[in-house]
Amino acid sequence: MKLIVESRFALLGLVMVALTALFGVAFVTGAVGAEPGAAGREPVVSEVASALRVCPPPQGGGRESELVAFATGGDGEGTLTATENSEGATDLGASDTPGRPLALDTGDADRHTVVRAEGAFAAGLDVAQTTIGADDDYATAVRCAEPGISTWYAAPGGDELDGLRLLLANVDDHAATVNVDLYATDGPAYSNDTRGISVGAHDEAEVDLGELIASTGAVAVHVRTGSGRIASSLFAERTDEGADWVPPTAAPAQRHVIAGVPAGSGERTLIVAAPGDDPATATLRVLTPGGEAEGESVAELSVPPAASATRAVQDALGEEAGTIVVEADRPVVVGAAMDRANGSDTAYAAAVDPLTGPLDRTGVVPGPPAGTGADLVLGAAGDAVDAVVTPYAANGRAGEPVGVEIEAGHTVVPELGAAGNAAALVVEAREGSGPVHAGYVLTQGSGGGRATAALPVPPAPAQILLPHVDDSLTSVVR
Looking at the domain assignment, is residue 2 inside a domain? Predict the structure, then answer.
């Protein structure tokens, strides 16, 4: 101890020498060709070289499930592997041909499936899993999650549900700790089961939220980690047939666009939650193929603090597909639920980032399984849209592109023709187009008894922007 005390000034001197050396390196290796903090310099763009996605085990027995992975990265080398989330990492499938969709039967999976991509397979990657009925009309779809530290959902509450289950997967080599916050119509809800959930390395957990939301009409769910990262999925059950995955929605913000609200009769409900300490007032716009709807459905919506509220919007939508724009005076979380024929068919929509240039202009969706149909629902919530949909066959060959133009303030369900039966579809906003808000709708069966699933389409970037590094303390500690 005496040696440490007597040497404290010498130790301080050594620290200063080290910092001086680091600042010198930062100065020499700072942003090439630009002064620190210079405005107007070109951003640094890098190819996406590695990606990880996690698919939950299919829910419900006696049904057919398929995982589809596709990357738009094009030529080059890389690897794409699918394994079971376990210490043994059982191999489930692989591909060594970039540009080809990988289809994997996951009907017997009882654990999460982990998809890892490197090189050309990682650029522009997206992975989704669909489940359809073998002997009945049934359809669910889920985009496989990227592990993270924060995920939001907006779902119906216990008055409408038989069950709401949160599935958690840790694919890393160290444990994660998870907390789940609920914002119901009557305020926050939590229990010991939603606090400090420990998920071991390569382990999984399931949290039943049913009892916590038994008396509420809607709920926002926030999954956050105290340590580590987690891949989460939320499964809502109204009936055995009327069950589906609730897609993750955008983090709290003052403006959201919910894309891909499917067509059909029955109830369509908007869910808005204000997770902060202040109440929020939201204004609504409902965009249909005929333009912006009017009426009582789009009147202002008041949301209590740390709570959620709902608004029926089927009068504004009619039986058409739509896009919903929500603008609020406080950050909010939003989602939409569709319920047709007394819970025998349900689907959910959420807010995701639009497809827009220069780097986020492309989105990827799986092709429909045999015996099903699929539609794209594209919305122009800002400027007019000029988009193109390109089908890809199982051998990776691109088909004939389908152009789509949308007036500002409208929603369109384009006629895809033979393209709708492709192994994968790529949706792209052309240069100069307004933001494209896209959703994918999968159906099995026909008429009033058909089963429907909805899947928002976020960007699948092949390139990302890297931050500039200047000769500053910030650059030293990055």
Answer: yes
> What is the rounded CA–CA span in Å between residue 152 and residue 140?
19
Q: Cβ(314)–Cβ(267) under 8 Å?
A: yes
Binning pLDDT at 50, 70 and 90, where does residue 240 land? Answer: confident
Domain count, the chain: 2
Q: pLDDT (tens digit, 9 = 90+) per residue, 91-102? A: 899 988 888 999
Q: Are 16 and 97 part of one and the same domain? A: no
Say how far apart CA 241 and CA 309 lie, in whole Å: 26
The dihedral over CA atoms of 150, 156, 159, 160, expressed in degrees to the nearest 10, equals -130
In a domain, 474, yes or no: no
Residues 6+ apart with CB under 8 A from 33: 41
Which pLDDT score, from 0 to 100, does residue 477 have? 36
Query: What residue numbers bound the domain in which 130 lies?
Result: 47-464
Same-domain status, 58 and 182: yes
The answer to whether 160 touches 86, Cβ cutoff 8 Å, is no
pLDDT at 215: 86
Tokens of 467: 């931050």
pTM: 0.88
165 shares its domain with 296 = yes
| Calpha distance 130→249 (Å, rounded) | 19
Tell me: do 7 and 146 sit in the same domain: no
**Would 412 be classed as within a structural domain?**
yes
For residue 311, list its beta bridge partners. Answer: 270
Percent of residues in the chain assigned helix, strand, coil, to nearest 5: 10, 50, 40
Amino acid at site 282: A
